[in-house]
Amino acid sequence: MKFRFALLLSLSLATVVHAEDETAAETWTAKCKSCHGGDGKGQTQMGKKESVGDISLPSWQSTHSDAEIRQVIAEGSTKNRKMKAYKDKLSAQQIDALVAYVRTLKKG
Ligand code: HEC
Questions:
Q1: 41 Cβ closer than 6 Å to some ligand 1 atom
Q2: Measuring from atom 5 of ligand 1, which residue has the nearest CA?
Q3: Range of 7's domain?
Q4: Most buried residue among 62, 67, 87, 101 by CB atoms closer than 10 A?
Q5: Closest CA to ligand 1's atom 24
Q6: Which of 35, 39, 94 to mutate to test the pocket of ligand 1 (most atoms within 8 A of CB)?
Q7: Would the pLDDT of 74 be above 80?
Q8: pLDDT by residue (tens digit) across 8-60?
Q9: For position 33, which CATH number holds?
């Protein structure tokens, strides 16, 4: 019985984690992809026009902390106003999930 409960618990936990991953991917597709691209390289029409950097680069990833990424998503960029503040549009949890999602875009 104990084992079964543990199994059930870990299965439902796995589902929760997976659901969060999916939500971040969906948020990215809905709100970020138009400028940053599905791969984070910024090779979209808007991305090219605004010279959006390639956030999949290991050199970008290693020089930006989670806190900095969270800040730019929540408050927007002071360098380019096209990167808007999302703190009124997204929950803190959604922003955290996006920070984690941005990390998954890293390409070696
Ligand atoms: C209308 C176009 C546009 C959309 C939509 C957009 N961004 Fe950006 N983003 C930009 C631009 C332009 C920059 C470059 C600003 C800069 O250099 O600071 C940027 C920069 C960034 C950076 C890097 C900042 C840095 O310090 O290098 C991150 C991370 C980022 N955006 C995440 C997101 C996320 C997450 C979303 C979706 C919630 C999003 N962006 C939606 C245009 C956009």
A1: no
A2: 32
A3: 2-104
A4: 101
A5: 72
A6: 35
A7: yes
A8: 777 776 666 566 556 899 999 999 999 999 999 999 999 999 999 999 999 99
A9: 1.10.760
